[in-house]
Write the structure tokens for this entry.
Amino acid sequence: MNASLRRLAASVVITGFRETPPDFPFAGFIFFDRDSASLAELRALTDALRARYDGLPPILAIDQEGGRVMRLRDGVAPMPPAAEIGASGDEALAERIGAQCAHDLRRAGCNLNFAPVLDLAVDPRNTVIGDRSFGADPAAVTRMARAFARGLERGGVLATYKHFPGHGATAVDSHNALPTIEIDEATLRARDLAPFAAVAGEAHAMMTAHVVVRALDPNHPATLSRRILQMLLRDELGFRGVCFTDCLQMAAIAGENGNTQGALEALRAGADALTVSDDPTLAIAIVERLERALEEGDLAMERLQEAAARVDALRALLQPPLPI
């Protein structure tokens, strides 16, 4: 496979790492608390990674939601969990928190946040979402999440709404197993799907949920479902941004389909950016799997080019870091 095709395949993959970041032309990298003890350390890392790229900057992403999901804590303003922000009902407060978060992330060199959460707190047994949700009311969650995202983007960090089409109505954690949502389609559309539908036309990025929604597609988790990612998210709701997968190492995908096959199926279904949390070797294997799929006719070149073009368009919007 030639080098230009390898770069094309790599341009739809982002990865985390546990030690040394790989020198490979991925679309970007995702950071966790293991990567740095402080804002200054993360900034040194992001500067080094950014220096590798000519032309479009890399995606330098992080999960900085607030509360228990804050990958960077030292040197940044504390952030309450989304549940507390939602309980306040104060959209201006949510926007200010988003703007402060963006200020801190840009000082650290990050340019995209995997937040805010649009999942609803509708199942009290749900621990994977829990206080990461702004609440149970779809309209209120939409207002508060949109305000937080507005603050992020006003501060120069792109927001990513997650986890489409909703992970709040299940007690199963997709890190550990494949959840199934059994609610009827009318309830799903009026409740869980409503926040995503409200923001789809304006969102730069969304992230998928590794959940089977029986009313929409009883045979595939959303991450691997063309019915959900293409027909619903794109064709019906009008989303034109980048569709990120949730981590493909999670058991809901890896345990059912295998990591590289799951990545291929996600891309074919309509995902644009394939996400790996901590295994660059796996990320490279996914690139190689995409190359083989092209050779064998299991992946249309047009689908890969479409995904890469969307990721490139997103990268063109990324803002440079702020001084520490």
The chain has one domain: 3-315. The chain has a mean pLDDT of 95. Residues 231 and 273 are 18 Å apart (CA to CA). The first strand starts at residue 13 and ends at 15.
